[in-house]
Amino acid sequence: MRKAFFRTLTELAEKDPRVMLLTADLGYLAVEPFSERFPDRFCNVGVAEQNMVGIATGLAEAGFIPFVYSIVSFAVLRPYEFIRNGPIHHRLPVRIVGVGGGFDYGHDGITHYGIEDVGILRLQPGITIVAPADYQQAVSSLLATWDLPGPVYYRLSKDDKTLVRGLEGRFELGRAATIGDGTDLLVIAMGDVASEAIRAVEVLGVRGISCTVMVVACFNPAPIDDLAESLAHFRLALTLEAHFAVGGIGSLVSEVIAERGLPCRLVRCGINTAVDGISGSRGHMLSRYGLSAEAVVATALEAFGGMNE
Questions:
Q1: From 90, 101, 201, 258, which residue has the greatest number of CB atoms within 10 Å?
Q2: Is residue 80 over pLDDT 60?
Q3: CA 47/CA 27 separation, integer angstroms
């Protein structure tokens, strides 16, 4: 989705001279549409992510809308204090773009996994968080949020091809997108693993379990009312995220159920253990941590079996 994101960003820059792009020596084969069209508004700061956020904070204070780009772990974790003390506390329009949410960089090992970014940024109510499910939603979410007055974090996947069937790029800030109208199980997905959720519910449908999928692509504001309304109609819900089970969509849904007093059991499909030195492709890592479509089917069937005993 990063290619579609940067094509759209280039189109926005054509219309608004405030838009700038900074990268920490990353993004080749993705940022070229912007860097070639606007070389005077593009800056490669080198491997210096903290400094990149500091520069962007100054640019935002001067009236620009700077986008800073790196791998998720380096875009969020390394400069976290700079993000907090700069654009968040000063309410400045810095756009942090992290690529490789989840296990997109699985072969590169644990330093490159993007599996705690949403959780740590959700703690800061002053930043909008956007986690598109596919490249069409990446475009629509960028168009809906690029000129917000405060900071925004975009969690992108490297996947520029896969589409979430039934989503059709729908995005509205503070709202969730619903796919299907099943009544037995509500599957709530964050990010590009929404495609795994769709595959899983198709298999479950064959097994006689009708499902609805909700795609949550934004936090701060989060779709609290949409979640509460849907959860009220289900005895069982399952969340799916390529993220630690604590802090992301699983935590958000748990909070909604608890605070609204909803009679819905929740099963969280996320990463529940410390990651180790074993690495591999995205598909391998999703399977290993129980996040693939096949794993979701098995988890859902086990949950239903437990409820019917």
A1: 101
A2: yes
A3: 12
Cα(90)–Cα(83) distance, integer angstroms: 10
Q: What is the tens place of the pLDDT at every residue in 255-281?
A: 999 999 999 999 999 999 999 888 999
- For the chain, first and last CA: distance in Å? 43
The domain 177-308 having CATH identifier 3.40.50.920: the answer here is yes
Domain residue ranges in the chain:
2-156, 177-308
Distance CA 249, CA 217 (A): 10
DSSP class of residue 227 equals H
When pLDDT is cut at 50, 70 and 90, the band that residue 121 belongs to is very high
Rounded Cα gap, residues 219 and 238, in angstroms: 18
Q: How far apart are CA 271 and CA 96, in angstroms?
A: 24
Res 308: pLDDT: 61
Question: Taking all residues of the chain, what is their mean pLDDT, rounded to a whole number?
Answer: 96
> β-strands 218-219, 128-130: how paired?
antiparallel
The predicted pLDDT at position 181 comes to: 95
Phi-psi region of 109 (alpha: psi -120 to 50; beta: other; left: phi over 0): left
Residue 32 CB neighbours (<10 A) = 14
Structure tokens at 290: 């129980």
Please compute the mean of the pLDDT values over residues 97-115 and round it to a whole number: 94
- CATH level 3 topology of 2-156: Rossmann fold (3.40.50)
